[in-house]
Amino acid sequence: MSPTGESSAAVAADFVLRGASELVTMNAPPAEGLGAIAGGALAARYGVIVWVGREADLAQAVDLALDGIDADAEGHCVLPGFVDAHTHVPFAGSRAAEYGERLAGSSYGEILARSGGINVTVAATRRASEEELARLSSARYDSMLRHGTTTAEVKSGYGLTVADEAKQLRAAATPHALRRELTFLGAHLVPPEYAGHADDYVRLVCDEMIPACAPLARWCDVFCDEGAFTVEQARRVLSAGAAAALGLRIHADELARSGGSMLAAELGCASADHLMHATGEEIAAMKAAGVVAVLLPGTSYTLGVPFAPARAFLEAGVTVALASDFNPGSCNCENLQLMISLACQGMKLTPDEALYAATVGGAAALRRDDVGNLAVGKRCDFSVLVAESRTELPYHFGVNLVSDVVVGGRVVVRAGSVCRGSSAPEPTAVCARDAPPEAGGSR
Ligand code: NIG
Ligand code: FE
User: Fold this and answer.
1) Ligand 1 centroid vs 327 CA: distance in angstroms?
2) What is the pLDDT of residues 142-200, one digit of tens each?
3) Which mutation among 118, 185, 305 tests ligand 1's pocket best, with the greatest number of atoms within 8 A of CB?
4) Which of 408, 443, 439, 412 is nearest to 429 (CA)?
5) What is the pTM for the complete model shown?
6) CATH (residue range 82-365)
7) Atom 3, ligand 1: residue with shortest CA distance
8) Contact between 406 and 23 (Cβ < 8 Å)
9) What are the distances in angstroms from CA 424 to CA 406, 413, 428, 439?
10) Best label site of 99, 262, 366, 438, fewest CB within 10 Å?
């Protein structure tokens, strides 16, 4: 009732979700139960959430348009779409043979040093056309959506020429329902034609690639590690990225304790990623600078190396994001459900901590306040599990527990299949500089 005693008007909606066993809003931290509402429901209009509450209050609170969508979760758990803050999607070729070599005893670093690893993907990606890369990316985006990821950061980094980096970024931007944040990673590796001349390559990245690629991306990343780029080279690349108005992120302390996370703190990067070799010093510096720790348990699993010290990050008060690192070498897996499971086993996160890191944490790593949780004003992006409780997710592992996915109030995955044809979603724009949700824009 309003202060005048009249009934307050119901909120107009074009989308309603009911029938959830629990609606896990992520509006409270893990220690407070993630804001899960038993018997929760939500409503949206123009792709943005306008009401969240108990289904018992839905009819009175919401006025659904006659041609609106009335979706039923049929007694299953509903989660915000996962936000995967670290992927390398637009590549060509396979490195299955390298996986076998690693199992036989060669390390990732050794294979890289003898011109294998990333070099193999660079050669295949340079040979591929933009159309082929777009087709490959689109199929991978389908798979990500089917596993409940609705927003993903997507890096270049297998072109390593001005033209091939731009080609990868344009291919990554192929129209698709998955929301994307594109990242320029021209400083992924010194390409073979610059062997022994890393500083010349860094000059090419700063003076030519960044000006050409900045309009196609939101972020600039660099692989700062043993066998890739030094701290000084990474500082030059990221400074040039910042000068071109790109946000900053960094591959840091993955293969060795290489100074990358200290640089992230110095430059105020949005995130430092990998961090298997981070110690208390790096953790304290990241905390002080507000750098999000993007942790990638699938990479530790694939490379057979220790997991990042997730508990130490959490105990220090650093925001932790869980991401897939989907790429052809160190983690060929786009399924964040599996990363949640691995984070519980390998990093000793609680199931709720892992879920929070894969949603709210991912959004923080991408500096987005419109995705990652289910609240009024946020994008209507969620998935419906084939389970009543979120506790099934890390426990029932190695299978896809997502049946249906909604992006921007449109059903994009139904009963495990991506919707095509008339029910297919509008292509979404991919540049994060697009309009905010109030303007009805989709990014
Ligand atoms: O994040 N570490 C550098 N880049 C990727 C791996 C890329 C590849 O092996 O193709 C990573 O692990
Ligand atoms: Fe990576």
Assistant:
1) 6
2) 999 999 999 999 999 999 999 999 999 999 999 999 999 999 999 999 999 999 999 99
3) 118
4) 443
5) 0.94
6) 3.20.20.140
7) 223
8) no
9) 11, 9, 11, 22
10) 438
pLDDT in tens, 369-411: 999 999 999 999 999 999 999 999 999 999 999 999 999 999 9
Distance 88 CA to ligand 2 centre (A): 6
Structure confidence at residue 433 (pLDDT)? 34
Give span(s): CATH 2.30.40.10, the chain.
11-80+374-408
The class (CATH top level) of 11-80+374-408 is mainly beta
d(CA 399, CA 314): 28
Q: Tokens 């949780």 map to which residue?
A: 373
Copy the structure tokens of residue 422: 């008339």
Residues in the chain: 443
Residue 63 phi/psi, 5° resolution?
-110, 100
Query: In which band, very low, low, confident or very high, does the pLDDT at 272 lie, cut at 50, 70 and 90?
Result: very high
Whether the Cβ atoms of residue 25 and residue 40 lie closer than 8 Å to each other: yes
> What span, in angstroms and rounded, lies between the C-alpha atoms of 223 and 148?
28
